[in-house]
Amino acid sequence: MRLHHLNCISTCPAGGRMMDGRSPFWAWRGRLCCHCVLAELPQGGLALIDTGLGLRDVHDPRSRLSAFFLALVKPEWREAMTAVRQVEALGFRADDVRHIVLTHLDFDHAGGLDDFPRATIHLLRAERDVALARRSWMDRQRFRPQQWSSRQRWRMYPDTQGEDWYGFKRARPLEGLPPDIALVPLPGHTMGHAGVALRGGPTDWLLQAGDAYFHSREMDLDSPGCPPGLRFYQWMLEHDRGARLGNQQRLRELLRRHGGEVAVCSGHDVEEFEQLALHAADTPATRAEDGVRDVPV
């Protein structure tokens, strides 16, 4: 299965180096990516893992995103970096994207759903439920119904059924997709948060872990850490702290035991993105990109 790595609009959060661990000390704002993965399916068509921010977000952000997050993370609005424009730059059409698999429904992961009108959207039922409820003030800022015109195409899965995947219980194969793609429940950041396992990448499997963690240092096997601002940001957004931190530990154990077979990436770490994509995070994917992974199935 051929995988393409797309950064679907960077965000520039207040806090600079305290948010990304890499910006110059004098910088007021840091830089995070929105790491999406595009898979060329063996049966034809494409599957997109998360969508980042979309065309409608670029053209009218104030009607789509909350004022709170617009000010806090200050997205870098570039139409060429939306998933649909990068899909087109790779030589495909928006209608070729038949499936979208969501780690969760935060605004910076689901903003491009409207751009793919033929896609079936796969997510955990628990995520749909918590996003629709929008019970807390923070949930009303992060979950944006304005981005969900695709709701009639959502296909939900319970997190109580599934198969074992490297010790993670209840991994779900998805309807209409090959067994090389599975939804792996990783609650904590949100109650219905999941990772997406894909057979491909630099190892046998790639686990796109979404927002289960944010910084590559959190996966350090000996001395995990996180920039203080980013640690606070995760705390601010978490639905279940124990589950979130427990799943980070499980991800580290996965790498310790199976690092030769499984690679893990998060949804926002620029360094991880560039290592997998083999091009700069501020550059859209093209047909000539070096970061394409071609893996037989």
UniProtKB/TrEMBL annotation:
<keyword id="KW-0479">Metal-binding</keyword>
<dbReference type="InterPro" id="IPR036866">
    <property type="entry name" value="RibonucZ/Hydroxyglut_hydro"/>
</dbReference>
<dbReference type="GO" id="GO:0046872">
    <property type="term" value="F:metal ion binding"/>
</dbReference>
<keyword id="KW-0862">Zinc</keyword>
<protein>
    <submittedName>
        <fullName>MBL fold metallo-hydrolase</fullName>
    </submittedName>
</protein>
<keyword id="KW-0378">Hydrolase</keyword>
<dbReference type="InterPro" id="IPR001279">
    <property type="entry name" value="Metallo-B-lactamas"/>
</dbReference>
<dbReference type="InterPro" id="IPR051013">
    <property type="entry name" value="MBL_superfamily_lactonases"/>
</dbReference>
<comment type="similarity">
    <text>Belongs to the metallo-beta-lactamase superfamily.</text>
</comment>
<feature type="domain" description="Metallo-beta-lactamase">
    <location>
        <begin position="33"/>
        <end position="268"/>
    </location>
</feature>
<dbReference type="Pfam" id="PF00753">
    <property type="entry name" value="Lactamase_B"/>
</dbReference>
<dbReference type="GO" id="GO:0016787">
    <property type="term" value="F:hydrolase activity"/>
</dbReference>
